[in-house]
Design goal:
By secondary structure, the chain is α+β, with helices and mostly antiparallel strands. Helix content is about 35%, strand content about 25%. Strand 3 and strand 4 form a beta hairpin. The protein starts with a strand and ends with a helix. The protein folds into 2 domains: about 120 residues; about 110 residues, Transferase(Phosphotransferase), domain 1 (Orthogonal Bundle), CATH 1.10.510.10. Its EC number is 2.7.1.166. Belongs to the protein kinase superfamily. KdkA/RfaP family. This is 3-deoxy-D-manno-octulosonic acid kinase.
Length: about 240
C-alpha cells in the first residue's frame, strides 16, 4: 500500500493505491469522466466531482492563462517530470498531509508529454466530505466570529509550516458541516525553507481582496469588518 508510478507511452501516472487502482488512468479520460460524473462537462476552471469504487473524488485539469493560454490552453513547457505543476502539487499535498495540515488527500496525477517540449496534466484528489467553499457558505449565511478566528488560526498554522498558497481566496477555502476548515488548490504553491513575513502577509491580503470583491458581486454576502478583525485576531494568536 502506498504511492506507485507507471508509464504508458508518453503518459506518466502517480497514484495512491489505497484510493485508486492500477487502472486509474481511465479516470483522466474525458469520456469516462463525463459518463461517471452525472454528465459534468470537463472544461477550463471547472472541478469535476465523481465517485470511483466508493471513493468521492475531484478531477482538476491544468490550464494556461493569458495570451499563451488562448493559444495552447492545456500544455506547459516541459523540463523534468518533478518540475511539472501537477507533480509539484501532488507532492506538496503529500508533504502537507504528513505535517498534519488539513488539505485534500492526493489520489492520482497524470502528466502527458507533448513533444518536443510541452506537456498537459491533470490531478485527482479525494473530496473533502460534507464541505462547501467559503464563497458558497457566505452567500447562504453568516459565520460567527469564533469561526473567523478559527480560520485565522488555521492560516497562521500553514504559515508556521512555511506553506505559501499562491491563490488564497474564498473559493479555495472549504468549510465542513462540523465546522472544520480546509485549504485547497495549491497549484503554484510552495513549502519554503523559511516563509517570509512579506509572503505570509500577501496571502492574508489576497484573501481580504477576494472577500471584498465577492461582497460587491453577490447579494447577500455575509462578511463584515468585524468578521475580518476576528480573523486577524485568530491569525495573530496563531503566529
Amino acid at each position: 500500500m502506498g504511492y506507485r508510478q507507471f508509464s504508458n507511452g508518453l503518459a506518466r501516472v502517480i497514484y495512491d493505491d489505497a484510493l485508486v487502482g492500477a487502472d486509474c488512468e481511465k479516470l483522466f479520460q474525458r469520456d469516462w469522466l463525463e459518463a461517471n460524473s452525472g454528465g459534468a462537462t470537463v472544461e477550463r476552471g471547472t472541478a469535476v466531482m465523481f465517485e470511483h469504487n466508493g471513493v468521492a473524488l475531484v478531477f482538476k485539469q491544468y490550464h494556461r492563462g493569458g495570451l499563451a493560454g488562448r493559444l495552447v490552453e492545456k500544455t506547459y513547457l516541459y523540463s523534468r517530470l518533478e518540475n511539472t505543476r501537477v507533480w509539484r502539487e501532488f507532492n506538496m499535498l503529500r508533504q502537507m498531509r504528513a505535517l498534519g495540515l488539513p488539505v485534500p488527500r492526493p489520489a492520482a496525477a497524470r502528466c502527458v508529454s507533448v513533444p518536443p517540449l510541452a506537456y498537459r496534466a491533470a490531478l485527482i484528489t479525494e473530496r473533502v466530505p460534507d464541505s462547501k467553499n467559503l464563497t458558497e457558505v457566505l452567500c447562504a449565511h453568516p459565520l460567527d466570529n469564533a469561526s473567523w478566528e478559527k480560520l485565522g488560526q488555521l492560516i497562521a498554522r500553514f504559515h508556521r509550516n512555511n506553506v505559501y498558497h499562491a491563490d488564497l481566496n474564498a473559493s479555495n477555502i472549504l468549510l465542513t458541516g462540523s465546522g472544520d476548515f480546509y485549504l485547497i488548490d495549491f497549484d503554484k504553491g510552495v513549502i519554503r525553507n523559511t516563509l517570509s513575513a512579506k509572503e505570509a502577509r500577501s496571502n492574508v491580503s489576497r484573501l481580504r481582496r477576494s472577500l471584498d470583491k465577492l461582497q460587491g458581486r453577490h447579494t447577500p454576502f455575509h462578511f463584515s469588518e468585524d468578521n475580518w478583525q476576528a480573523l486577524e485576531k485568530g491569525y495573530a494568536a496563531g503566529e
